[in-house]
Specification:
By secondary structure, the chain is α+β, with helices and mostly antiparallel strands. It has four helices and three strands.
Amino acid sequence: MRNGPAVATALVSLAVVVAAGCARCGGAGGPPPERFLAPDTPLAVVVPSLRSAQEDLAPLVRTALGFPAAADLAAALEAVRAQLGFDPLDPAALATAGVDPSRGAALALAPGAPPILVLPVG
């Protein structure tokens, strides 16, 4: 992770938040996050529940941050927090930011294209 903070900053600054709207506009849960990704996306990470992913990822990140080799990870996480304006691993911060943690999220990466981040709007 040589350019970890720079990559994280670029990722978040280029990310496009395209999420489902209100509960009236597409069913109770809204459309799945993969609906907003191009069908030919070479790499996509889709999580069906942001809350579950958050619960699984937070302890892993805390453990990884304890290792000296993860110094770049701490800087990258701080850059992501600064770009988003909230801590994506904090459930209360998600709710305050208007993100619905009970729904899914997606991240799409393609060579030569900006990353696309799909977050569920509460």
